Amino acid sequence: MLKKTLLALSFAGLAFAAFAQQPAIKRTPLQKTDFPDGYTTLTAIAEVPPGGAAGRHTHPGIETGYVLEGEADLLVEGQPDKHLKAGDSYLIPAGVVHDAKTHGDKSLKIIGIYVYDKTKPLATPAP
Predict the structure, then answer these.
(1) Per residue in 7-43, is it b (16+ CB within 10 Å) or e — as a string?
(2) 31-84 confidence digits (pLDDT tens)
(3) Which of 3, 41, 53, 97, by CA, is between 20 and 30 Å from 82?
(4) Across the chain, where does the E strand assignment appear?
(5) What start and end residues bound the annotated signal peptide (predicted)?
(6) CA 54, CA 107: separation in Å to the nearest integer?
(7) Residue of 92, 124, 123 lying closest to 29 (CA atoms)
């Protein structure tokens, strides 16, 4: 029994280490303003390295964006997966779980605009 427990803990530790070693997403805020009333509008550049993903999350407002460089698969709950490439734009409704996974051997670079409830955090992880 002790061996099984130790083995399970070892695998859990390896899984955590693998997750922790995934490439980080770089976010660069460009402009932020409290507008319209009760909301914050944020314009930012997000970069996801090759093999990376944003992770499943939601926003308390809409996200719209434009792909500057690279390619990704955009997975929006309740919608068919969408393959994005440089020059494409997208819109994600408020509160909808979504993720973006890079495609190919190049980083993904987008300009995103978020209009969200200023009393809530910009993003919340989703299971």
Answers:
(1) eeeeeeeeeeeeeeeeeeeeeeeeeeeeeeeebbbbe
(2) 999 999 999 999 999 999 999 999 999 999 999 999 999 999 999 999 999 999
(3) 41
(4) 26-33, 39-48, 57-58, 61-69, 71-76, 82-85, 89-92, 98-102, 108-117, 124-125
(5) 1-20
(6) 12
(7) 123
Residue 15 half-sphere exposure toward CB, CA atoms < 13 A: 6
Q: Where are the domains of the chain?
A: 23-125
For the chain, give the longest Cα–Cα distance.
60
Q: What are residue 63's DSSP bridge partners?
A: 92, 114
Q: How many Cβ atoms are within 10 Å of 127's Cβ, its own excluded?
A: 4
pTM value is 0.79
Tokens representing 51 are: 């093999």
CATH for the stretch 23-125:
2.60.120.10
Residue 93: how many CB atoms within 10 A of its CB?
Answer: 15
Q: 107: which 2 tokens? A: 């980083």
Task: For 26, list phi and psi in degrees, rounded to 5.
Answer: -100, 125
